[in-house]
Design a protein that fits this description.
The complex is a heterodimer of chains A (361) and B (574). Chain A contains 15 helices and ten strands. By secondary structure, chain A is α/β, with parallel strands linked by helices. Chain A folds into two domains: 184 residues, 3-Layer(aba) Sandwich (D-Maltodextrin-Binding Protein, domain 2); 160 residues, 3-Layer(aba) Sandwich (D-Maltodextrin-Binding Protein, domain 2), CATH 3.40.190.10. In chain A, strands 1, 2, 3, 4, 5, 8, 9 and 10 form an eight-stranded mixed sheet that branches. In chain A, strands 6-7 form a two-stranded parallel sheet. In chain A, α3 links the parallel β1 and β2. In chain A, α1 crosses α2, α3 runs antiparallel to α14 and α8 crosses α9. The N and C termini of chain A lie far apart (84 Å). Chain B has 574 residues and is mainly α. Chain B contains 25 helices and no strands. Chain B is globular. Classes of the chains: A alpha/beta (361), B mainly alpha (574). The interface between A and B is large, with 65 and 60 residues.
C-alpha cells in the first residue's frame, strides 16, 4: 500500500507541475507570438531558462524593464552585469576571444564599438519584428538596435541664474546661440575623452561651427570634469551655473527627481546617441536573447525601457512616460543631426589633441 | 619588509636557517614561487604583451610598437609623468613623516588613553580614497563645501578653506595613507627592545638623541618601505587627483589610463603601455630601496626575551601634544565623517541647506534589493580574503626572511610586483589572463578572491616581513636542533611571535578588499556583486549622497571587523 500511495502522489505532483508548466508555456508562447517570435524559439528559450545581459544601464535602473520582461516570460531568470561602456567592451571582447561565452545580450552607446563587434562577427544576425520602424541611424540592421536615446542639451542650476540668464536661456534655439552665453567663469564641461556622449558635441561644434566654437567656450574658463556624474553632482550643488553640453536626461534627471534645482533644454539640431543592444554570436542562451531583443523593439518594450532609465524614445509613436517629459520646460529636439560615427572615430585622436591644446586639459 | 633585500652580511647569514637535511623550506619556496607566477607574473605578462599588440590578447591583432612610442616617444606624457612623480613623492614623504610622528606619540609616549587614539587614527583608512575625497569635497569645496557655506553666512562669497588643487590632492591622499603608515610602523615601534635605549639613557643621551640615533635608525627599513608604498599607492591613484585637480588642470598617468579603460571606445593596449611606465618607475624605486637596506641584521632587536621599551614622559609638553592629537583627529576624521554622515541624509548637496533636503531615502535604497547580497558577498570576501592573503603573505615572507633557499630573492621581487601596477591596469591583465578559467571560476566569488590575493599579497608580505625581521633566528635554530620540523617551528614559534603583525595584516587586507573597486568592477558578475560595486554604481547614477550612505554602511562593517579582530586577539588594543 505504501509504495502505491507514494507512486500515486508522485504521479499527481508531476501532473500538477506539468499542468502548471503547460499553462506558463502557453502564456509565454502567446506573448512570443505577439512579438513575432516563433513558438519553437519561445520553447527553446524556456528550455534555456536563463538570460545574461551586459548592461550599460545600471542594475537598479535596468531592473524595471527586466521585471516587466520576466513577468511576460517567467520561465527566464534574467541576470544583469552593469558597468561603463569601456568596461563592458573590454570584458565582452576578452571573453569572446578566449572562447568564454558569458553574455547573451550586450549593450553599449558607442556605435563605433558596435561596428567593431559586427566586423569581428561578435554579434548574431537577428531582425526583430518592428525593426523597420526604427530610424537607420539608431540601428545597425540585423545586428544592434536602440532601446532609447540620450540627447545632448544645455543644463543649468535654476538657483544660480539671474533673470537675465533665464531670458538668454529661453532665447536659445541653436548650438550657435550656445556659444554666446553669459556664463563666463560660471560653467563646466566634460572632457572629450569621456565617451561617445562627449565625442559627438565636440565633433559637431568643430565641424559645423568651426574651431572658433571651441575657442569661444575655452575663453569662458570652464571647469573640465572627467565624467558627467561628478559634474552633475556639482551642478546640483550650485558649484557653477551652466553646462553648455551634456547628456542631461540620463545623468542629471535622477538628481532633479530628488529635488535638485536643475533644468535643461535641447538646442537644434538634436545631438542624439543611441543606447543599443545586440545578441552575442556565442550567446549561451540565444533564444532567450532573441526574446529580449524582440520585446525591446516592441512598442511596450520601448516604452518600458524609456520609462525609468531617462532615455528618450528611439522609435516614433512611443508613449514617453518619463516624469521629466511631463514638465513644462522640457521638449525634445525637433531635428536630429545625422552623426557619421565612422568619421568621428577616425578623427578622435586629432580632436583629443586639439582639446588638450584649446582647453589645457 | 617585503621590499627589503635578503641579508647579505655574515651575521645575517648566521641567523638564517641552514637548509641541510631539510627539504621543507625548499618545497615551500618552490610552491610559493609557482603561486606568485600564476597570480602575479601571468597578469603582468599579459599586460606587457598587450602593450606591444594592436588588440587584446587572443584576438587577431598584430605586434606593434605604436603604443609604446605614443607613451615614451611623443612627449605628451612628460607633464603627467612629472605630476604623478610629484604626487607620489610628496604623499610618501608627508604620509610617512606624519605617520611616524603619530606612531611615536601613541606608542612611545605617556599620552592619555593611547588605545583610543590608536583606534581613532586608523579610521580614515576605512574609507576608500574616492569616498574620502567626496567627504572632503562636501566639507571644503570652495563654493559648496559645508565649511564654506557656513562661512559665507559671515562673509558673503568668502572661502574659508579650499581642498581643490595640488595641495588638496596631497592632503587627502596623506590623510588616507597616514593610518597605513601607523599600522605598519606600530609593530616595529613596539618591538624595539628597551635595552639599547636604556643604555643610551644611562650614558647621558637626551631623548631627542635617542630618537635620532637609535629609534629612527632601527625603524629605517619600515619607514623607507612605508614611504615607498604610500608614494606608489598615491601615484597610482586616479580618483583623488582627477576630482580635486580639475580646477588646476592636474593630469596624471593613472588619470590618462582611466580614460583609455573606462570609456568607449576603450584602448586597453595603450593603457597597458602606460602601465609599463608606472611599472618601470616603481621597480626602480624598489631596487633603490633594496640597495639602501642591504644589511638588515642590525634591525634585529627581539630576542628570546624581548623587553618592551618604557613610555617616555612628555611632562609639560603633554597638554600641547594632546591638543595636537585632538586637532589632527578633528580635521582628518571628525569633520569629514560628519560631512559624510550628514551628506548621507541629504537628497543632494546644495549651497542652500534647508530641512526639506533631509531624507532617509539614501539608506532605504542602500539596504534594498540586491544590495543586501552585495553586503553579504563583501563580508565573505573580506573575511576569507583577509585570512587567505595573510596566510600566503606570511608563508612568502617566511621563505624570504627565514630561509637560505635559492630563489627567495626572486620570490621577494615577485610578491612586490603588484604594487607597481595601478589596480585598473592590473585588472585588465587579470581579465586577459584569467578569462578562460575553467570549472565555473570565471564570474564567481572565487575569481574575485584570486584577484584580491594577487593584488594585496604585497601588503601581507610587507606587514609580516617587518615582524619576522625583528625576531631572532636563534629560537628557531634551537628548535630545529631539537628536532622540530618547519611546520612545527612555524606553528609553535614564528606564528605566535608574529601574532600582532598577522592580525594587523588581516585587518588591513580586509579593509583593502572592502574598498577595492577598480579590479572588482571589471571582474565581478551578477553572482559576485560587492558593496564597492554598488557604491560605485550609486556614485555613477544617483550621485554622491547615496554613495555616502553606502560608504557609511561600509565603514560600519569595517569597524565591526576591527572590533572582532580586537576580541579575537583578546586585547583592547594592539
Amino acid at each position: 500500500m505504501k509504495p502505491s500511495f507514494m507512486a500515486t502522489t508522485a504521479a499527481g505532483l508531476i501532473l500538477f507541475a506539468s499542468a502548471g508548466m503547460a499553462s506558463a508555456q502557453d502564456a509565454e508562447i502567446a506573448a512570443g507570438k505577439a512579438l513575432g517570435v516563433p513558438q519553437e524559439v519561445v520553447e527553446a528559450a524556456c528550455q534555456e531558462g536563463k538570460l545574461d545581459v551586459y548592461s550599460l544601464i545600471l542594475a537598479d535602473e535596468a531592473k524595471h524593464p527586466a521585471t516587466v520582461f520576466a513577468q511576460m516570460f517567467p520561465c527566464l531568470d534574467v541576470s544583469i552585469y552593469a558597468a561603463s561602456g569601456g568596461a563592458i567592451g573590454q570584458r565582452f571582447m576578452s571573453e569572446f576571444q578566449a572562447g568564454t561565452a558569458a553574455a547573451d545580450v550586450i549593450m553599449n552607446s558607442s556605435p563605433a564599438f558596435g561596428k567593431r563587434m559586427v566586423e569581428g562577427d561578435m554579434l548574431m544576425e537577428y531582425v526583430p519584428q518592428g525593426a523597420e520602424n526604427m530610424d537607420a541611424q539608431w540601428k545597425d540592421e540585423g545586428h544592434w538596435y536602440a532601446m532609447g536615446l540620450t540627447y545632448i542639451g544645455i543644463g543649468y542650476n535654476t538657483d544660480e541664474i539671474t533673470a537675465e540668464d533665464q531670458a538668454w536661456i529661453d532665447g536659445v534655439k541653436t548650438w550657435q546661440d550656445v556659444l554666446e552665453n553669459p556664463f563666463a567663469d560660471r560653467l563646466a564641461m566634460v572632457d572629450i575623452r569621456a565617451g561617445g556622449s562627449t565625442h559627438l558635441p565636440y565633433y559637431y561644434l568643430k565641424t559645423e561651427l568651426g574651431d572658433q566654437s571651441w575657442q569661444a567656450l575655452a575663453d569662458e574658463n570652464p571647469i573640465i570634469f572627467n565624467g558627467i556624474n561628478p559634474l552633475a553632482d556639482q551642478l546640483a550643488a550650485g558649484a557653477f551655473a551652466f553646462v553648455p553640453h551634456a547628456t542631461l536626461d540620463t545623468a542629471v534627471n535622477k538628481r532633479r527627481e530628488r529635488g535638485a534645482p536643475i533644468a535643461w533644454k535641447f538646442p537644434e539640431p538634436g545631438l542624439g546617441i543611441p543606447y543599443f543592444m545586440g545578441i552575442a554570436s556565442n550567446a549561451p542562451h540565444p533564444n532567450a536573447a532573441k526574446l529580449l531583443m524582440s520585446w525591446s523593439l516592441s512598442p511596450e518594450g520601448q516604452a518600458t525601457w524609456v520609462a525609468r532609465t531617462g532615455l528618450a524614445p528611439a522609435m516614433p509613436g512611443i508613449d514617453d512616460q518619463r516624469d521629466v517629459a511631463q514638465q513644462d520646460w522640457y521638449a525634445l529636439p525637433e531635428t536630429v543631426y545625422p552623426a557619421d560615427w565612422d568619421k568621428i572615430e577616425a578623427e578622435l585622436p586629432a580632436l583629443v589633441e586639439q582639446f588638450a591644446q584649446t582647453f589645457g586639459n | 619588509m617585503s621590499l627589503a633585500p635578503s641579508p647579505s652580511s655574515t651575521t645575517a647569514s648566521r641567523r638564517r636557517l641552514r637548509p641541510r637535511h631539510e627539504r621543507g623550506p625548499l618545497i615551500l619556496t618552490s610552491v610559493m614561487i609557482v603561486l606568485m607566477v600564476v597570480l602575479v607574473v601571468l597578469p603582468i605578462g599579459y599586460l606587457v604583451y598587450g602593450a606591444i599588440r594592436s588588440g587584446p590578447p587572443r584576438s587577431e591583432a598584430a605586434f606593434t610598437l605604436a603604443n609604446l612610442l605614443t607613451i615614451y616617444g611623443s612627449g605628451r606624457f612628460v607633464e603627467p609623468l612629472l605630476t604623478t612623480l610629484a604626487i607620489g613623492i610628496a604623499t610618501g614623504i608627508v604620509g610617512a613623516t606624519v605617520g611616524l610622528i603619530l606612531t611615536w606619540v601613541v606608542i612611545r609616549t605617556d599620552i592619555r588613553r593611547p588605545g583610543m587614539w590608536e583606534k581613532l587614527l586608523i579610521l580614515p583608512l576605512y574609507l576608500s580614497p574616492l569616498m574620502l575625497t567626496l567627504a572632503f569635497m562636501a566639507l571644503a569645496a570652495p563654493r559648496t563645501g559645508f565649511l564654506n557655506i557656513f562661512f559665507q553666512y559671515l562673509v558673503p562669497k568668502g572661502v574659508l578653506v579650499d581642498v581643490e588643487g595640488f595641495v588638496g590632492v596631497i592632503f587627502v591622499l596623506a590623510v588616507h595613507y597616514v593610518p597605513y603608515a601607523f599600522l605598519v610602523l606600530a609593530a616595529p615601534m613596539r618591538a624595539i627592545s628597551a635595552e639599547l635605549e636604556e643604555a643610551a639613557q644611562v650614558l647621558g643621551s637626551s631623548r631627542w638623541e635617542i630618537a635620532r640615533r637609535i629609534t629612527i635608525p632601527m625603524l629605517k627599513p619600515a619607514i623607507f618601505s612605508v614611504a615607498l608604498i604610500i608614494g606608489t599607492l598615491a601615484a597610482e591613484n586616479f580618483a583623488v587627483p582627477t576630482l580635486l585637480g580639475r580646477a588646476d588642470k592636474i593630469k596624471t598617468i593613472p588619470g590618462e589610463i582611466y580614460y583609455w579603460l573606462a570609456y568607449a571606445p576603450a584602448d586597453p593596449n595603450l593603457a597597458a603601455a602606460a602601465g609599463t611606465m608606472l611599472l618601470l618607475l616603481t621597480m626602480t624605486g624598489i631596487f633603490i630601496y633594496r640597495r639602501m637596506t642591504a644589511i638588515s641584521a642590525r634591525f634585529v632587536t627581539v630576542t628570546g626575551k624581548p623587553k618592551p621599551a618604557a613610555r617616555i614622559p612628555l611632562g609639560r609638553w603633554r597638554p600641547l601634544v594632546m591638543a595636537g592629537l585632538y586637532l589632527y583627529v578633528a580635521i582628518t576624521i571628525v569633520l569629514p565623517m560628519m560631512a559624510l554622515v550628514g551628506g548621507s541624509f541629504l537628497s543632494f548637496l546644495s549651497r542652500r541647506l534647508k530641512p526639506e533636503l533631509l531624507t532617509l531615502q539614501n539608506y532605504k535604497a542602500a539596504l534594498s534589493g540586491n544590495n543586501l547580497d552585495a553586503i553579504l558577498n563583501s563580508l565573505l570576501l573580506a573575511s576569507v580574503g583577509a585570512v587567505l592573503v595573510t596566510a600566503v603573505g606570511f608563508l612568502v615572507s617566511y621563505c624570504v626572511q627565514r630561509t637560505r633557499v635559492p630563489g627567495r630573492g626572486l620570490l621577494d621581487y615577485l610578491s612586490a610586483l603588484p604594487i607597481a601596477v595601478p589596480g585598473m591596469v592590473l585588472a585588465v591583465g587579470m581579465l586577459w589572463a584569467y578569462v578562460g578559467l575553467p570549472f565555473g571560476l570565471w564570474g564567481s566569488l572565487w575569481m574575485l578572491l584570486i584577484a584580491y590575493l594577487a593584488r594585496f599579497i604585497v601588503h601581507a608580505v610587507r606587514a609580516t616581513n617587518t615582524s619576522l625581521l625583528q625576531i631572532s633566528g636563534e629560537m628557531e635554530e634551537a628548535a630545529r636542533v631539537l628536532g622540530a620540523n618547519m611546520i612545527e617551528r612555524l606553528r609553535d614559534i614564528v606564528m605566535p611571535l608574529s601574532k600582532r603583525a598577522l592580525l594587523s595584516s588581516a585587518v588591513l587586507v580586509a579593509i583593502f578588499i572592502l574598498n577595492e573597486v577598480t579590479a572588482t568592477i571589471l571582474l565581478y558578475s551578477p553572482r559576485s556583486v560587492t558593496l564597492s560595486v554598488v557604491t560605485w554604481h550609486a556614485l555613477d547614477m544617483y550621485g554622491a549622497m547615496q554613495a555616502f550612505a553606502l560608504a557609511v554602511i561600509q565603514g560600519l562593517i569595517t569597524a565591526a571587523l576591527v572590533a572582532i579582530s580586537y576580541r579575537l586577539a583578546g586585547k583592547t588594543s594592539w
